[in-house]
Design a protein that fits this description.
alpha+beta; three-stranded antiparallel sheet; 6 helices
Length: about 280
């Protein structure tokens, strides 16, 4: 059996001794899914996947969905988004800064993401990692008065970082071109969302794409969302995972907020990313 090691008390687990370049059997798939739902993210060490193998692994979690920024889809696999600060012939080879603020992947879509998978290709020494925040623990710790206040609220989401709309800033949401921008519009999701597999309630995307709340004035809604985001990203709910080359990390978008590092542009950093939607029926 693979070896699972907890990374912190609040979230995260490391898995050694499992080669995911080979298809997983039903027992292995269920074991990994249970680990993901219990720990929020799992890091599979010492992997070496081809683009096709990475997408095959991703399909064991659900339906891969190509990112709206098709400029940096992998030439062999459109389901893979290349994250990279490497330039070739004066042009970027991947998305340089992606999500350097707390957010939830694909919360700006009707069809929300189950998990995101990254494969570290060429990363600098630590610190180079992603910070995750456990939104189930954050919800559980809310005062009962706040839980009652937010019960049943529906949040209005759109692509973007509501707290930084400056397109020249490195912490703005990755800028879309005109054609890409036409593919995103307003969507609505519950503020408190039960986990699609475990039923555990968690705050959902209270930072990033959440711009308002139905039936509430915008200023009041933003105040509430920012109050919840400040609560939900306290250090006690967070863990930062640094990457080694060969790591494959899977994180649970129903359970976590995450924030990518603002990377040193002088040190090469390249990762592959696939985002997977919930399987039908979840």
């Amino acid at each position: 059996m693979p070896l699972l090691t907890l990374l912190s008390d609040v979230l995260g687990a490391r898995i050694d001794g499992l080669d995911v370049s080979e298809p997983l059997d039903a027992h292995q798939s269920q074991w990994l899914a249970d680990a993901l739902h219990r720990h929020g993210f799992i890091v599979l060490k010492n992997q070496s996947l081809t683009p096709a193998e990475m997408v095959t692994f991703a399909k064991q979690w659900g339906r891969p969905s190509p990112h709206v920024i098709d400029t940096f889809h992998h030439p062999q696999e459109a389901n893979i988004l290349i994250l990279s600060n490497v330039f070739k012939d004066g042009k970027p080879t991947g998305l340089v800064d992606a999500g350097t603020y707390f957010h939830t992947d694909y919360s700006y879509l009707d069809d929300v993401a189950r998990c995101t998978i990254l494969h570290a290709q060429d990363v600098p020494p630590a610190p180079n990692g992603t910070t995750f925040a456990n939104q189930a623990k954050a919800y559980a710790d809310l005062p009962s008065v706040m839980k009652e206040k937010i019960k049943g609220l529906v949040v209005k989401h759109h692509y973007g970082n509501r707290d930084n709309l400056d397109k020249q800033s490195r912490s703005v949401a990755s800028v879309l071109n005109a054609e890409q921008a036409q593919r995103v519009s307003w969507v609505r999701h519950p503020l408190v969302r039960p986990h699609p597999f475990t039923g555990q309630p968690a705050l959902y995307a209270v930072s990033g794409s959440s711009f308002g709340i139905e039936g509430m004035p915008d200023d009041e809604a933003l105040d509430l969302l920012r109050e919840l985001a400040a609560h939900a990203t306290q250090d006690k709910y967070c863990y930062t995972n640094n990457y080694d080359n060969g790591d494959v990390i899977v994180w649970d978008n129903a359970l976590l907020l995450h924030s990518a590092p603002l990377i040193d542009l002088t040190r090469p950093r390249t990762l592959w990313r696939v985002t997977v939607l919930n399987p039908q029926g979840h």
